[in-house]
Amino acid sequence: MTSLLFLLSLPLIAIGCDIKATLNFNPKIQSGFARFKFFNETYGPVYEYREGEKNLPQKFTIKGTFCNMKPTILETFETDPRAGDVKPKKTSQAFIEGFGTMDYQIGDMHTPYLSSKIGVFCGFGDCGNSHG
Ligand SMILES: *[C@@H]1O[C@H](CO)[C@@H](O)[C@H](O)[C@H]1NC(C)=O
C-alpha cells in the first residue's frame, strides 16, 4: 500500500513536461476563437475556427519545468481576443505534467475539453473524465 501511494504521487514531483499537443475542432461548430494560456503565464497563438468549414487540427508543443505549478487553460471566444478586453466564453483548465501527448477539442457551444491524453498527468481540473 505504501509503495502504491508512492507510485501514485510520483507524477506530482516529475520535473517538467514535454507534451505534443493537438487542438481539434468538432465538425459542427460555431465560429469563434481559441487561445491557450500556459502554466508560464504566456499566451499561445489565437486560433480562429469557422462554422461550416473544415478546421484543421493545430499541433504545438508544451514544454517546460514545473508545469503543474500553474494551470494550463484553453479559452474560447466569440470575438477576437486580440481586439482587447474580450472575456472568454468558456474555459477548460487543468494542472498538467509529464511526457507524452494530449488532445484538446473544441465542441459545440465553444466548449473546450481535453479529449485524450497519454503519458500526461493531469490533476485539479478538467482532465477529460467527464467526456469519456
Ligand atoms: C511558455 O510555455 C509555452 C508552452 O510550453 C511555450 O511555447 C512558450 O515559449 C513559453 N514562454 C516562455 C516565455 O517561456
Task: Describe, in plain words, how this protein is organized in 3D.
Keywords: Signal. Residues 1-16 form the signal peptide. This is Lipoprotein. This protein has one domain (20-131). Strand 6 (90-106) and strand 7 (112-123) form a beta hairpin. Strands 1, 2, 3, 4, 5, 6 and 7 form a 7-stranded mixed beta sheet that branches. By secondary structure, it is mainly beta. The chain has one helix spanning 2-13, and strands at 17-25, 32-37, 47-49, 58-64, 72-77, 90-106, 112-123. Bound molecules: 2-acetamido-2-deoxy-beta-D-glucopyranose. Residues 38, 40, 42, 62-64 line the site of 2-acetamido-2-deoxy-beta-D-glucopyranose. 2-acetamido-2-deoxy-beta-D-glucopyranose binds next to strand 4.
How would you summarize the topology of this molecule?
Elements lengths: L1 H12 L3 E9 L6 E6 L9 E3 L8 E7 L7 E6 L12 E17 L5 E12 L9
The structure holds 2-acetamido-2-deoxy-beta-D-glucopyranose (NAG).
